[in-house]
């Protein structure tokens, strides 16, 4: 995964640990998994598209609100004061500009961010899946390769980031690392100019807002794919109004294809899908047969070997 020097430096200072987590996905060839219902999994495969839904209708109803609440709580405390002092020492007035920018975008982040959620797949779960995810999200898991998640491009206008699982105390510690890095890199940041520093702070706060969850969700090991059409439209996404659970809403549908010219790399079904795990269900054979046939029809080689019936003895009904 090749990043330019400025991007690497930004992440080293304002997103501590992020590059290491991304590099571990690449070097260890980690896969991702999408837990959902059998019906939704079938829709993803047969229509060859992934739906991004508005954060306000996601399972974890707090979503962006949780991250914004943490920002307010932590940045008004002692470590927040230390952060502000470090920044103001570089360019006086920077915090005011960053606050003004945040105020302008806060509601847009909460209302116009569309996400799809996947988890890092544990190889030990190849045969079983993850019990907590079966209980929370459905009876089918699509295990996929990491190529689309680790491609470096702005063409697609869809981005991915690992979720931060932070309490107030956790964000205090995280922010302390950022402030330490700012102090160490003071001259470098000064050389970039105030507007760049304001942008860096804004981008840092954006990740806190859209990719921070309560530590109680940590075992999910979630990565978040996000799309913000108010900032940039994607050539691979179409929008549609649908009714889900009685709620009319806009969904953003990402085409699953290999289209490098649009920033899509290895996202076609034969290249993308590593396996399908059938979770606890009363009809394992018919589900196995259905997914095997669908994958075969989509050009997946030896499809039957890639459909696994979970061996977790979970009672249903």
Briefly summarize what is shown.
By secondary structure, this protein is of the alpha+beta class.
Overall shape: it is: elongated
Separation of the first and last Cα atoms: 45 Å
Number of helices, counting only DSSP H or I runs of 4 residues or more: 13
SS-based structural class?
alpha+beta
Order of helices and strands: HHEHEHHHEHEHEEHHHEEEEHEHE
- Helical fraction: 40-55%
Please compute the radius of gyration using only Cα atoms.
Answer: 21 Å
Poorly predicted tracts of residues: none
Round the mean pLDDT to the nearest integer and report it: 93
Tell me what portion of residues adopts beta-strand conformation: 15-25%
Report the oligomer.
single chain
Report the biggest beta sheet as strand number plus sense, adding barrel if it closes.
10 strands, mixed
- Strand elements, count: 12
Note down, in words, how this protein is organized.
The protein is α+β, with helices and mostly antiparallel strands and 317 residues long. It is 45% helix and 21% strand. It has 13 helices and twelve strands. Strands 1, 2, 3, 4, 5, 8, 9, 10, 11 and 12 form a ten-stranded mixed sheet that branches. Strands 6-7 form a two-stranded parallel ribbon. The N and C termini lie far apart (45 Å). The mean pLDDT is 93.
Q: Topology, please?
A:
Elements: H1 5-14, H2 18-27, E1 31-36, H3 38-47, E2 49-54, H4 63-75, H5 78-88, H6 94-111, E3 114-121, H7 131-137, E4 140-144, H8 147-150, E5 158-162, E6 164-165, H9 168-184, H10 186-192, H11 194-210, E7 212-213, E8 222-227, E9 237-244, E10 247-255, H12 269-272, E11 273-278, H13 284-297, E12 307-309
Parallel strand pairs: 6-7, 11-12
Antiparallel strand pairs: 1-3, 1-4, 2-3, 2-10, 3-8, 4-11, 5-8, 9-10
Helix pairs in contact: 3-13, 4-9, 4-11, 5-9, 6-11
């Amino acid at each position: 995964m090749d990043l330019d020097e400025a991007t690497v430096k930004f992440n080293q200072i304002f997103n501590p640990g992020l590059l290491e987590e991304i590099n571990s996905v690449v070097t260890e060839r980690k896969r991702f998994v999408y837990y959902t219902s059998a019906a939704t999994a079938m829709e993803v495969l047969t229509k060859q598209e992934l739906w991004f839904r508005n954060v306000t209708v996601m399972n974890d109803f707090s979503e962006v609100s949780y991250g914004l609440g943490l920002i307010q709580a932590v940045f008004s405390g002692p470590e927040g004061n230390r952060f502000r002092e470090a920044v103001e020492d570089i360019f006086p007035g920077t915090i005011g500009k960053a606050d003004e920018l945040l105020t302008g975008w806060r509601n847009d982040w909460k209302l116009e961010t569309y996400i799809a959620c996947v988890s890092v797949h544990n190889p030990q779960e190849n045969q079983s899946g993850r019990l907590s995810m079966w209980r929370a999200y459905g009876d089918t898991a699509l295990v996929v390769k990491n190529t689309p998640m680790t491609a470096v491009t702005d063409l697609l206008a869809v981005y991915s980031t690992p979720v931060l699982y932070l309490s107030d105390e956790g964000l205090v510690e995280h922010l302390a690392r950022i402030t330490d890095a700012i102090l160490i890199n003071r001259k470098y940041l000064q050389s970039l100019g105030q507007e760049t520093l304001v942008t860096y702070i804004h981008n840092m706060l954006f990740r806190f807002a859209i990719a921070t969850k309560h530590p109680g969700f940590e075992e999910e090991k979630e990565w978040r794919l996000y799309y913000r059409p108010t900032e940039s439209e994607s050539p691979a996404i179409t929008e549609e109004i649908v009714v889900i659970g009685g709620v009319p809403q806009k969904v953003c549908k990402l085409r699953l294809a290999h289209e490098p010219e649009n920033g899509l790399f290895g996202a076609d079904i034969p290249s993308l899908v590593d396996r399908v795990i059938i979770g606890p269900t009363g009809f394992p054979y018919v589900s196995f047969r259905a997914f095997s046939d669908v994958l075969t029809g989509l050009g997946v080689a030896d499809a039957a070997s890639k459909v696994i019936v979970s061996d977790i003895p979970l009672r249903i009904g």
